[in-house]
Design brief:
Blueprint (H helix, E strand, L loop, with lengths): L4 E10 L17 H8 L4 E6 L2 E3 L5 H4 L4 E3 H11 L3 E3 L12 H11 L3 E3 L1 E2 L2 H4 L3 E5 L2 E9 L12 E2 L4 H14 L2 E7 L10 H13 L3 E5 L7 E4 L2 E4 L4 E3 L16 E10 L6 E11 L5 E3 L2 H19 L1 H28 L3 H13 L1 H11 L5
Parallel strand pairs: 1-2, 1-15, 2-5, 3-4, 5-6, 9-11, 11-12, 12-14
Antiparallel strand pairs: 1-16, 7-10, 8-9, 13-14, 16-17, 17-18
Helix pairs in contact: 3-4, 9-10, 9-11
C-alpha cells in the first residue's frame, strides 16, 4: 500500500478461558500464519477481548473465575498473534471483579497492545484510544449496552452505550483523527439480524463522524453494509472461543462460523475511502479458527452476503427482527412461568423485574409491540 493507504483487520470475540493455568508459551496457533497470509500486511488487528487477564496481585476468588486467564499465558499468546487493539467494552470484563480491569489493561500494554472501553472509572472507560500508522491517526471508541456493568465516577466498569454520550465521544474522535473506529457490544445473542434500533444507531454514528462501526456479542455472524461512506459490521461472531463442550453455545446454529473483516482505507483527502473484503474462517476442535477455501469458502462468503441482504431489505429485516423479538418473549415468559410454578417466587420475581426494568430488554419489547418496525 502507498503512504495514503492503511489496512485494518477486525475479528470477533476472543475468549481464552481454555488456557486455564497454562504456562507461558504452552499454547500455539498453527493456523494463524495461513490466516495472516490471507489478510496481507496490515497496520491494525482489532478484536473483542471477552475474558479477564489476572495476575498474582488479584484475589484468589478472582483468579478462580471461569473467565480468568493468567496474564503470563494470555499476554504472549495475544501478542504473538499480533493484536494491536482489543476492546474491553463487553459483559465479561468484570467477571473477575473490578480489580481485574486495570490488570487486564496493564497486561495488554506490557505486550504491546491497547485495551479500550473499560477502566477504573467512567472517565477512563470512555477514553478514546489513539494510535498512529504512517503519519495517519486512528481513533478507537468502545461501548457496551450491559448497564449493570457500566463504569461510574467511583467504580470500575465498561464504557456505557448511551447515545448522547457516545455521540459526543465520536464527534471528539473525528475532530482529532483521520479514521474513527467504533466498537459496540450489544443486542440479542444468536440472531441472524441486528435489532432495528442497532441499525439506526450504527448509521447515526456514521453521521456523527465514525468511519467504521464494528460490533460483537451475538456470537454468530451478521450482515455488513456500507452507509454514507462508512462500513458497518453488525456482528463478527466468535474468533477464538471454546465451543466444544460449551453447552450454552455448542448446539447453536452458526457459532462455529467466523471471519476476518479486512478494510483498506485510502486516507488521501478530507474523507477516507473504504473498501472491505472478508476472509472466511471456521472454528475447530482446538477452539481456534482456520481458513476455509474452495467450495466451503465460497459457501461461507455467500452466507455473509445473504446475511447482508437481510439487513439491506427493510421488509425482510423487520420480519426477522419481529420473529426474534417473539422468540425472546416466549423464552423469558417460560423462565418466569416455571419459576413461579415450582415455587421459586424470588427467582421468578427477579426474572420478571429484569424484563420490566432493564433498558436492554426494553429494546426487544419495543420491537415486539411495534411489530418489528422499531
Amino acid at each position: 500500500m502507498d503512504e495514503n493507504g492503511l489496512r485494518l483487520a477486525f475479528v470477533g470475540d476472543v475468549c481464552l478461558s481454555f488456557l486455564g493455568n497454562a504456562p507461558t508459551g504452552a499454547f500455539e496457533f498453527p493456523e494463524w500464519p495461513a490466516i495472516k497470509r490471507e489478510i496481507g500486511e496490515y497496520g491494525f488487528l482489532v478484536g473483542n477481548l471477552e475474558c479477564c487477564l489476572v495476575d498474582a496481585q488479584c484475589s484468589e476468588q478472582a483468579r478462580q473465575q471461569t473467565m480468568a486467564v493468567p496474564a503470563t499465558a494470555a499476554g504472549p499468546f495475544l501478542g504473538a498473534i499480533g493484536f494491536s487493539d482489543l476492546t474491553m467494552a463487553n459483559n465479561h470484563s468484570l467477571d473477575c471483579g473490578p480489580e481485574a480491569v486495570p490488570v487486564t489493561r496493564a497486561s495488554l500494554s506490557a505486550y504491546g497492545m491497547r485495551g479500550f472501553g473499560a477502566g477504573l472509572d467512567k472517565h477512563e472507560a470512555e477514553e478514546i484510544a489513539f494510535a498512529e500508522r504512517n503519519g495517519h491517526r486512528v481513533a478507537f471508541v468502545g461501548a457496551c449496552d450491559k448497564s449493570e456493568f457500566y463504569a461510574k465516577s467511583d467504580r470500575a466498569g465498561i464504557a456505557p452505550l448511551e447515545k448522547s454520550r457516545l455521540g459526543q465521544r465520536v464527534r471528539a474522535a473525528a475532530a482529532q483523527a483521520d479514521l474513527v473506529v467504533v466498537a459496540l457490544h450489544a443486542d440479542l445473542e444468536f440472531s441472524d439480524v441486528p435489532g432495528r434500533w442497532r441499525q439506526r444507531l450504527s448509521r447515526w454514528l456514521i453521521d456523527q463522524g465514525a468511519h467504521l462501526v464494528i460490533q460483537h456479542h451475538p456470537h454468530v455472524l451478521q450482515g455488513i453494509e456500507t452507509y454514507n461512506g462508512g462500513v458497518i459490521a453488525y456482528s463478527l461472531g466468535n474468533f477464538i472461543f471454546k465451543l466444544r463442550g460449551n453447552r450454552y453455545q455448542e448446539r447453536r446454529a452458526g457459532v462455529f462460523d467466523s471471519m476476518v473483516l479486512v478494510v483498506d482505507a485510502n486516507l488521501r483527502g478530507s474523507q477516507p475511502t473504504l473498501a472491505y473484503r472478508i476472509v472466511p474462517l471456521s472454528i475447530g476442535d482446538q477452539h481456534l479458527p482456520r481458513c476455509v477455501s474452495g467450495h466451503e469458502g465460497e459457501e461461507a462468503i455467500r452466507r455473509v452476503q445473504a446475511l447482508s441482504s437481510m439487513v439491506a431489505d427493510k421488509r425482510v429485516h423487520r420480519r426477522l427482527w419481529l420473529r426474534r423479538c417473539k422468540s425472546e418473549a416466549v423464552s423469558r415468559m417460560r423462565i418466569i412461568f416455571y419459576a413461579f410454578a415450582r415455587g421459586h417466587f424470588a427467582r421468578g420475581g427477579r426474572a420478571l423485574w429484569t424484563v420490566l426494568s432493564c433498558r436492554e430488554d426494553r429494546r426487544w419489547i419495543i420491537g415486539l409491540v411495534s411489530l418489528g418496525y422499531l
